[in-house]
Amino acid sequence: MSRVKGKKRASPDLNRLAYTDALRHSPDGFIVFDTENVILSYNLGAEKIFGYTKEEAVGRPFTFLIPPEILEKGELERLQRQVDRHGRLGPCCVKRLHKNGARIKLELTRSILRDGEGRLIGYEALFRDITRDLEFEREIRLSEKFAAVGQLVSGLAHELGTPLNIINGHAELILSDLSPDHPYTESLQTIISASHRMTALMKSLLRYVSQKEPREEPVNVNDMTRDLLNFLRIQIRKQKIRESIELDEQIPPIMGEKSQIEEMLLNILINAIQAQKSGGVIDVKSSLRSEDGWQYIALSIRDAGEGIPSEVLPRIFEPFFTTKEVGKGTGLGLYITHNLVQQYKGHINVESAPKKGTTVTILLPVGPEQINPREEKECP
Amino acid sequence: MSLKTSPMILVVEDDPSMRDLLKKVLEKNDYQVDLADDGIRAMERLRENSDISLVISDIRMPNKDGMALLEEAGSSFPWVKVILITAFGEVEQYLDAMNTGAFEYLNKPFRNQELLDLVSRALESGS
Fold first, then answer.
1. Within chain B, how many helices (H) and strands (E) appear?
2. Element (H, E) at A125
């Protein structure tokens, strides 16, 4: 006891002050509101989580932070009953509304505030944004499932290559000996076109699932583009497509999984080649670009093909959507590319004009535009 | 085809139906065909048949695989060109094969005409 004797006990005021200060700066959100739901106190964490400033939030009933579909369901009343009955609520998971319209998931704890005489004067809510956590969990679950399915599909697709080749090759061989009006000519053509469809589907699936466990490594987009063009050269030559390549050698590497970035670019390059008949153009450019305070590597691939009709443009990233002739497209290429680009927090832009061709630009983030060393020090 | 004797191609493939297909497609197009079902047999055929100017080999085979054959044939018979065939491959495998000296690389499944185009390009390219 003598040891504590010397210590000065903090006054209740100091305690409250310290407590309030900690809450004010907490990355978790903290809101106090009265019995009419009007916000009285709103901390920095809440500003960050909801996107509204303290000035915008204080003095308003907090219902603007709740998505209308949740309000309609009467969730608020149910929560209220729960708090009134038990004095507190949670932690529980609720859906709320960010200023930008996005639905966010919060882990929420709410309790009753009473005055000295025990009268109900309001409520306090403590919460943290778990949207990312939940997404992350879901991604992990998905990726585990995906890895198992991936292994299976990849093994299967590899095994299918030879029998598909045998079916297709022998059918082509017989077809080449039949006259065009032979009764079985059409049947053989059907076999061949069906095997091409299977091939295209298998290739897409295989490319998608053969992505290895994402591993961060510096990837030189220019080198990769050159490798991929080499990979596709047979087809480019066959279609007499003229290549124009302008790669900015100053662009920095991006961090990512090589096979995923390959997959992104390969799908766009294949589309550009397939969009054109003999004698087309493929124009590939890389550059460094700044947007919204971030630096991006921009890779644009232009073809001089038929272009994408405006009514089709909104659908091009849908799975299994294809305008290619039967057996040529699976409708998975752009879908996969779009998903991967999003995963890398990048952007993909498609500009297309009928008869003039299409330009696809992929933007992949390198990092913040300028790192201010003073800002970096802010975090203790 | 030119008037001189048609080129001799060694087909190395462990799957009999696939081997048969390659043989038929090539013979139909006036090439002479020699056969082997793995890399070890292929080296034997190369040593015994000096007419062989092109090897078309599967990559995945028991005993000696296509990559090992490519390396060995490349050092013992540098004038022989090699086209490697594999199930739908990855870019890395393609680059490996090309860096080891393959003339070209073909993904299964391919069309007969794709194979024939490659073969004529390989044979035209001179040694």
1. 5, 5
2. strand A120-129
Chain A residues with CB-CB distance to B84 below 8 A: none
pLDDT in tens, A295-312: 899 999 999 988 888 888
Helix (H, G, I), strand (E, B) or coil at A232: coil
Asked whether the beta carbons of residue A259 and residue B117 sit closer than 8 angstroms, the reply is no
Which of A116-120, A137-141, A245-249, B65-69 comes out lowest in average pLDDT?
Answer: A137-141
Round to whole Å and give the CA distance between B93 and B97: 6
pLDDT in tens, B28-44: 999 999 999 999 999 99
Structure tokens at A306: 């038929």
Whole-prediction pTM value? Answer: 0.47
Q: Give the nearest partner residue to B108 out of A161, A172, A228, using CB atoms.
A: A161
Distance CA A252, CA A366 (A): 8
Which ipTM value was assigned to this complex? 0.86
d(CA A302, CA A304): 7
Q: What are phi and psi of A306, to 5 degrees?
A: -70, -20
